[in-house]
Amino acid sequence: MVKLKSSTFHQTLIPSLEMEQDYFSTVLRAFVNQDSALLCSCITNDLKKHYGGRALVFKLVRFKTDAIHIFPPNAQPFEELVYCHLRALKYLLAANEKMVWASQKKILEICVSFLQEENSEWMTPCILQWCRESRKLAYSLSKASGLIKESKEVSECTMILRNVCTAFNNKKNVMGGGLNGFVGSVNELSKILFAQSNIRLCQDIYESYRDRIAAELQQAPASQACTFYYYCGRLRLYEDDYHGARDALTRALSLCDPNAPHNLQMVLFFLIPVNMLFGRLPSQAYQKLAQAVRTGDLPLYDRVLTDYATVLVTRCLYLTVVSLKVLVQRSFLKRVITAYGSAQIPFQAIHKGFDLLRLHESDDELCCMLSVLKYKGYLKGYVSFTQKTLVVSKTQPFPPISSVMK
């Protein structure tokens, strides 16, 4: 990392405009003192948090970035970084997001070169902020076109974030400003890959960096670890690894800031259905779904699945809720057998239970349901096809769900 001195600042080359000169002096001071918090405020697309506020921003956008040099020759990457930001601000105020993206992309490319230098860890909070702002900008552009999975900007952002992640992986020390650069970059990459539904690539990233991730999570702050375990849990859901999903999401919940209700809600949105697969029904959340599982109300379960299909698909939780149907069927059959009071239940008695729910299932459909319950371990017994009778165990026809999911 290039060492700068405040005396190297080319003050004589700056127009005699007090606010602009103060800004460039502040940027230089941030680099000289390695003040990541100050640099974050000087180079951000959030006008509310920008150093000097909107008043300074409106003046900076009129500054001609190709007119003068404000940094010495040995620190041109710093100068290019600042100028890219000024161009981004100019296009941001002009509502030209495509040109903002061009400048923002250049900022991330410069960040990758910074990370290859020694003693660059202090910039970690800044680099993670610019990664986050770039990802959100790419989202905004893709939403405007309505094609997030095929968006050129999202694809470019994904590639650059991978480069940032690789650059952090090549460094021994990735802690700076209280943040872990490697875990933070993996989290940013996970977010954009999930937005594209590119689960396969996310799996490859986690597998490739498995040892490094495990080591860095030991020193990463709780907020970053929480985010990682949240996406790790969602990834395990895609893999039908419900034990792994429950462990990761439970850990995410334990690390989540209790004063961040939105984050808690996001974690619980996935953790509660997973816990339901293990027989733990919630008291309030997912009331209708929990009621269907508890009482065996198949029509109620179908309505929940239909009414909330869009939300469940958007959150990539649809298949998990579909997996809960076997528990609804288990509860339904358990009520029928309890009411019948015998270990041998004719199909006709089970059909009567369906009739009460205004459902009409054929014998073949019933046999299919019973076979699935038996195969997955939720039912002990067998089916006599010749006599059209279900024969269940007299001791424990329905093993505890917790034992089935072990």
TrEMBL record:
Gene3D superfamilies hit by this protein: Winged helix-like DNA-binding domain superfamily/Winged helix DNA-binding domain
InterPro entries: Csn12-like, WH-like_DNA-bd_sf
Domain of life: Eukaryota
Native source species: Blastocystis sp. subtype 1 (strain ATCC 50177 / NandII)
A GO cellular component annotation in the UniProt record: transcription export complex 2
Taxonomic classification: Eukaryota, Sar, Stramenopiles, Bigyra, Opalozoa
Molecular-function GO term, any one: RNA binding
Descriptive protein name: PCI domain-containing protein 2
GO biological process: poly(A)+ mRNA export from nucleus; post-transcriptional tethering of RNA polymerase II gene DNA at nuclear periphery; transcription elongation by RNA polymerase II
